[in-house]
């Protein structure tokens, strides 16, 4: 199962920062993380949320819900960021 790390407000909303979570695709993994928490689901789905797969930042264009994950993957979600 992929190792998941949550940073910032995402970790605060989930109540944890690191754990192993089952999920064969990015969408399935996010669904498992958010379970029945609409706030957490919204944070994970926000286009500005950072998604880091195996230490590489994944651009929004490559974050499809059907993106496959390997059981040895490490995926991190970081708080949405703004710029100016």
Task: Report on the architecture of this protein.
There is one protein chain. By secondary structure, this protein is an alpha+beta fold. 29% of the residues lie in helices and 21% in strands. The protein has 3 helices and 5 strands, in the order βαβααβββ. The chain has helices spanning 8-14, 26-34, 38-45, and strands spanning 3-6, 18-20, 50-53, 56-57, 74-78. α1 (8-14) runs antiparallel to α3 (38-45) and α2 (26-34) runs antiparallel to α3 (38-45). The longest helix has 9 residues, at 26-34. It is globular. The mean pLDDT is 92.
Tell me the layout of helices and strands.
Elements: E1 3-6, H1 8-14, E2 18-20, H2 26-34, H3 38-45, E3 50-53, E4 56-57, E5 74-78
Helix pairs in contact: 1-3, 2-3
Overall pLDDT metric: 92
CATH topology: Ubiquitin-like (UB roll)
Give the class from helix and strand content and strand pairing.
Answer: alpha+beta
Any idea what the CATH architecture is?
Roll
- Arrangement of strands in the largest sheet: 2-1-5-3-4
Instruction: Please count the helical segments.
Output: 3
How much of the sequence is in beta strands?
A: 15-25%
Q: Uncertain regions: pLDDT < 50 for 5+ in a row?
A: none
Q: Name the CATH superfamily assignment.
A: Beta-grasp domain
- What is the string of SSEs from the N terminus onward? EHEHHEEE
- Provide the domain count: 1
Rounded to the nearest angstrom, the distance between the terminal CA atoms is 37 Å
The first-level CATH class name: Alpha Beta
Count of individual beta strands: 5
